[in-house]
Amino acid sequence: MNFNNVTYDRSFGTSAQLPESTLPEIAFAGRSNVGKSSLLNKLVGQKNLARVSQKPGKTATINFFEAGGAYLVDLPGYGYAQVSKTERERWAELIEGYFNQDRNFALVCSLIDVRHPASALDENMVGFLQEAELPFLIVLTKGDKLSKSKCNQQRAAIKRQLQLADDVPMLITSSLKGEGMDELRRTIKSYVD
C-alpha cells in the first residue's frame, strides 16, 4: 500500500453498480460534516483528491481511490438534513448496499467529531460494525479545535458512550495541522500489509 501514489479510480451512485471487490478496501464513514474529504486529502498528501466543500453533503457517491494494492473508499456522509428525502434515502441505500455486499473489507474508519458526543447515527454505525464483526477504528476529527487535554477527555467520554473494547483503536486527528496522520497511516497499513 502506498499513500504517496493515490489516484482516483471511479465513483458509483447506486450499490448495484459496485464492481466485484478485488483489492483490500479501507472505507471511511461518518456524518456529512465530520471532515471525511479533508482527512482523506491530508492522509495522502493531496489537496484535491477528494472534493472538499464548505457545504456539507458534497460526497453523494461512493468514491474509490487506488492506493498501490488497496482501495481507499470514501462513503457518502450520513445525517445531513438539507437534501431531499429521496437523496437521503439514496445515500442510505448506497452505504447499506456497500456493507451488505461480500467485499474485501480490510478496515472501516468510523469518523466522529471530537468536539461533540457521538450522534445516534454514529452509535448506529459503530453498533453495526461491531455486530458485523468488521475490523474498524474510531478516527476523532477536528482535534485542532480543542486543547490536548480536552481532546483526551472527549476521547474517553466517546469510548464510554460507544462501549468500546480496549482493543478498538481511537485516534485523534487534525486535517488542518496533520496531527495523527502518521499514526493513522501506520494503523491502516497494519490491516492491509
Give a written overview of the molecule.
This protein is an alpha/beta fold and 193 residues long. The chain has a single domain, classed as 3-Layer(aba) Sandwich (Rossmann fold). It is built from 5 helices and 7 strands, in the order ββαββαβαβαβα. The mean pLDDT is 90. The radius of gyration is 15 Å and the shape is globular. Helix content is 33%, strand content 20%. The relative contact order is 0.18.
List keywords for this structure.
Rossmann fold, 5 helices, 20% strand, 33% helix, seven-stranded mixed beta sheet, alpha/beta
Report the count of strand segments.
7
Report the CATH topology name: Rossmann fold
CATH class: Alpha Beta
What is the count of DSSP helices, taking H or I runs of 4+ residues?
5
| Count of discrete structural domains | 1
- What amount of the residues lies in strands? 15-25%
- Helix-strand category: alpha/beta
What CATH architecture label applies? 3-Layer(aba) Sandwich
From the N-terminal CA to the C-terminal CA, the straight-line distance is: 7 Å
The global form is globular
Low-confidence stretches: none
Instruction: Specify the helix fraction band.
Output: 25-40%
State the CATH superfamily name: P-loop containing nucleotide triphosphate hydrolases
